Q: What sequence folds into this?
């Protein structure tokens, strides 16, 4: 009988990276989640992507630019904000 060998956990696979402007969504005076435009999503019913509030670092104001990643997850992938960034040069006002 063999003992089970400990398996090294690997970091989740990153499917996409982008710099996006996240917008805070409120209800009853508290942040529920964040959104950003996501025209590349396969679903034509929703033109925004959602980021859970615990996956975004704290920031002041209603909107901020972040580097975001779409990450492998079970049962489905999710978006997370990695770090706050300056707006890209081609971003509108």
A:
């Amino acid at each position: 009988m063999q003992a089970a060998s400990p398996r090294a956990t690997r970091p989740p696979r990153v499917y996409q990276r982008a710099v996006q402007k996240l917008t805070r969504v409120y209800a009853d005076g508290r942040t529920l989640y964040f959104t950003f435009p996501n025209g590349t999503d396969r679903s034509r019913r929703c033109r925004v992507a959602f980021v859970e509030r615990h996956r975004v670092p704290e920031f002041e104001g209603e909107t901020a630019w972040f580097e975001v990643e779409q990450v492998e997850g079970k049962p489905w992938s999710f978006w997370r904000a990695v770090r706050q960034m300056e707006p890209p040069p081609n971003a509108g006002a």
User: Anything to note?
Assistant: The chain has a mean pLDDT of 87. The radius of gyration is 17 Å. Strands lie at 14-27, 30-37, 48-52, 63-71, 78-84. The longest strand covers residues 14-27.
